[in-house]
Structures
1.
Amino acid sequence: LAKCSHIIMDKPRKELSLKDKVTLIKSHESTGKSQCKLAEDFGIGKTQVCEILKTKAELMTAFEENENMDRKRINLFKEDGHNKINNTVWCWFKTAHGINAPISGPLIQEVALKYAKDFNI
């Protein structure tokens, strides 16, 4: 059998903390570095840099509201009405599953639409 020493394994995705994300944003604004250069500097992918810059306003708001600076994943959409629907449908699902009721994808969609209408979303 031939040895494959030339195969490069993908490195695991690196998650930046809120503090690091804010540092990246400020670096982008002050130096005007390209996304490629920022990705290289922070040891992350270009797509991650793009996503961080897209959610810049929400990240800066979380930073200014003194969120946990070491936290890596932040729910940026806390007040979103869709979370209310998701949580309500999840509770319904757990209840229905607990009583062994038949559940299907279309039924879950129907319940979600009903709650959306009830919540005026």
2.
Amino acid sequence: MSVRVLIADDSAEYRDILAGMAGSLGWEAQVCADGASAIETARRVRPQLAILDIGLPDMDGFALCRGLRALPGAEQLPVILISGTYRRDEDRLRGLSDGAIDFLEKPFRLAELISKAKALARDYGGEDTAR
């Protein structure tokens, strides 16, 4: 079964990197540049994993994480937050308290993100066996 992953990042470069990562795993990526389109996309496709940048143009990733997990059926949606500007311990703790499972700082090692994403997909029922 293919994992449906929602990617929200205002950087075209990071959207391409993250979509490429999902594609290399055989996953279906839904890519958005802002929070509003991410919420609308999530309503339509019901993602099994979300990778969200915190610095989005219309809302921060903390609010997006809360908004996604408030959608019917998405209460347990595993979320990884990523950020190049929010790097303090308080930001990390805020993300976790807002429902994120993990937090990575940009630039991150792609191998680390892949490992975390595969584990979340496996542990949260997105995929029977992680590739």
